[in-house]
Design brief:
Blueprint: H1 4-14, H2 24-27, E1 37-38, E2 40-43, E3 52-57, H3 62-72, E4 76-77, E5 81-86, H4 115-127, H5 133-144, E6 147-148, H6 157-163, E7 165-166, H7 168-181, E8 186-196, E9 200-212, E10 215-219, E11 227-233, H8 241-252, E12 256-261
Parallel strand pairs: 2-12, 6-7
Antiparallel strand pairs: 1-9, 3-5, 3-12, 4-5, 8-9, 8-11, 9-10
């Protein structure tokens, strides 16, 4: 962070439009508030209720294979992709939470504009005193962001708190900021999610991991899904976070997927 003046100047610059915002035409597509839809081919009948095998394909899959080895250990590399088995959730990395506990340029819950949302979240937690704090904050964010659309593009937390608008990235950012503000280590994850609709669909997606009961657990204020695959942790939360995000996402996002029973 380069100081309050530069941060606030930056916030003023992006307040009208997200840093990675999509076009109105794309935002109006009849899809959930996720990122890209990824072409998905089915091999036979697949029930998303149970374990599945997912093959992620792209022309250059070396970086993708390396990223998945970090979370899944040994993976099956093919000529044009990587095959993994999805059963229980696996965090992208198992490192300790020390680096994910403070405000940052991206998770700027120390900004004055964040305070009203933080106060509402505190009142919500008091009403839900018998529930685990991370789960209650997830439900709060799902309700707080009322304008669920794809018009924004990885807004920082104070902008999300002010506008109450966005897709999965804004849900993930706001939730991570509120978790940290309430003493729970949290980080933003980018990856894939499989959704059961009229047929199984796959999307690029973002969600939050929180350090709960001695490990990283997924919390998602934008979607409920059994199968998700994290590709990377947003570790650069500074002023240049957007450039790193775009490059990493494009380097790891598969161009198509093949889904088979697990």
């Amino acid at each position: 962070m380069n100081g309050a003046i530069s941060r606030r100047a930056w916030l003023g610059l992006v307040a009208g439009g997200g840093l990675l915002a999509v076009s109105p035409a794309r935002a109006a597509e009849d899809t959930p508030p996720f990122l890209d839809v990824i072409p998905l081919t089915m091999e036979g009948d697949v029930a998303l209720e149970g374990p599945v095998h997912l093959t992620l394909k792209r022309d250059d899959s070396a970086a993708l294979a390396a990223a998945l080895r970090a979370s899944h250990g040994k993976v099956d590399a093919t000529a044009d992709g990587v095959r993994v088995r999805l059963a229980q959730y696996r965090p992208v990395t198992a490192d300790r939470p020390q680096g994910f506990t403070r405000p940052s340029f991206l998770l700027d819950y120390d900004e004055p504009a964040f305070a009203p949302a933080a106060a509402l979240a505190k009142a919500y937690l008091e009403k839900k005193a018998g529930e685990p704090k991370a789960a209650a904050l997830t439900a709060f964010v799902a309700e707080f962001i009322t304008k669920k659309n794809r018009m924004r593009g990885f807004d920082v937390a104070s902008i999300v708190a002010k506008r109450g608008e966005g897709d999965c990235t804004e849900h993930a950012v706001l939730l991570a900021a509120l978790l940290r503000a309430n003493g729970i280590a949290a980080r933003v994850i980018c990856g894939l999610v499989l959704m059961k609709m009229e047929r199984p669909l796959a999307f690029g997606h973002a969600w939050t991991e929180a350090w709960v009961d001695g490990g990283w657990k997924p919390f998602d204020a934008a979607a409920t899904a059994k199968h998700r695959l994290g590709l990377f942790v947003v570790t650069n939360e500074g002023a240049g976070f957007s450039a790193g995000l775009a490059a990493k996402y494009q380097a790891l996002l598969p161009t198509r997927l093949v889904l088979a029973a697990g």
